[in-house]
Design goal:
314 residues; 10 helices; five-stranded mixed beta sheet
Length: 314
């Protein structure tokens, strides 16, 4: 079994995305790149160097339904007839049933004003074009086996970066294909998403992410293939650094709290004052995640007024 790392371009600041081609029976591609010609052409060229073609792919596994990881899934399926597999919690995003990354209601509850909401909507429309909906999907859940002719991988549900993020684990090789759960050079952003268990609530992304990292640390992989950039070869060190970073970020947020109650939107400008307009959604996502985590720990009190959540230090 050969595992090939294929890197294709994206239009995002993070740069190229890593795809993983498992050259075994059935030929399996993990993640696809965004629905842009540059990514499609790059994928074709790299397959050609391996003397393979898209039409030979029999299975596509999506680690999570973000455009840079899943955008070409429908096009690949149309060309090859491949099965496209995803976790149930990310399936609505992949199929187009959940049209946008987050509903207006959650953004309004975070205190986003109407003009900023409209700007976010326009940017989401652009992102939508980077991922063609997949109408025929197969669902993968925790513990499922991804079988090949001679061996198999285990599906791990690793919520955090998205609710339905999944990783693939090969216990014999101590090898993890980690998607965006583990990135060597940047911290995975905890994106605002509706909670699949209750869509009127915000998914507790940061708390879930830290639980996921602790679980992966305990598995003890010796190598992690990441969604962007280089492999990670010391999971214990990665977990320790990530937890330290999260605690530092939360402490900074609490230091910046005004004496009066404030919204997540207002606090995002205090925590990320230099973020550009197109980065405000990411700044809001991380701020909201830390507010949820601090509230769960009893450091903040949350009150709702006129459909907007306000936070106050205890």
């Amino acid at each position: 079994m050969n595992i090939h790392t294929l890197r294709v371009p994206t239009p995002f600041p993070i740069g190229p995305v890593n795809l993983f081609l498992i050259e075994a029976d059935p030929l399996t591609l993990i993640d696809t790149g965004p629905n842009i010609d540059e990514a499609f052409d790059s994928l074709n060229e790299q397959l050609d160097r391996l003397k393979l073609r898209i039409e030979q792919i029999r299975r596509v596994i999506i680690t999570h339904a973000h455009e840079d990881h899943a955008g070409l899934a429908a096009r690949i399926q149309q060309m090859s007839g491949a099965a496209v597999c995803v976790h149930p919690w990310d399936a609505p995003r992949l199929t187009g049933e959940q049209r946008f990354l987050v509903g207006h209601q959650l953004l309004r509850r975070a205190g986003v004003p109407a003009d900023a909401l409209e700007q976010m909507q326009q940017r989401r429309e652009y992102h939508r074009r980077l991922m063609q909906p997949v109408t025929d999907i197969q669902l993968l859940r925790e513990g499922d086996e991804i079988s090949f002719a001679s061996e198999s991988w285990r599906v791990l549900h690793t919520p955090g970066h998205t609710p339905g993020h999944l990783c693939l684990w090969h216990e014999g090789k101590r090898l993890l294909i980690g998607g965006d759960t583990i990135l060597k050079r940047v911290s995975p952003n905890p994106i605002i998403n509706p909670d699949p268990r209750n869509p009127e609530r915000r998914f507790p992304s940061l708390a879930m992410y830290l639980d996921t990292l602790a679980r992966l640390r305990d598995l003890g992989p010796t190598r992690v293939h990441t969604g962007h950039g280089e492999d990670v070869n010391d999971m214990q060190a990665y977990y320790t650094a990530s937890l330290h970073h999260a605690r530092q970020r939360q402490a900074r947020l609490l230091e910046l709290f005004p004496p009066q109650a404030a919204t997540a939107w207002e606090l995002s400008f205090r925590l990320f004052p230099e973020a550009r307009e197109e980065q405000r959604f990411l700044a809001l996502s991380e701020t909201s995640a830390h507010l949820d985590w601090a509230t769960e720990q009893g450091k903040l009190k949350r009150d709702e007024q006129d459909g907007i959540d306000y936070y106050l230090r205890i």
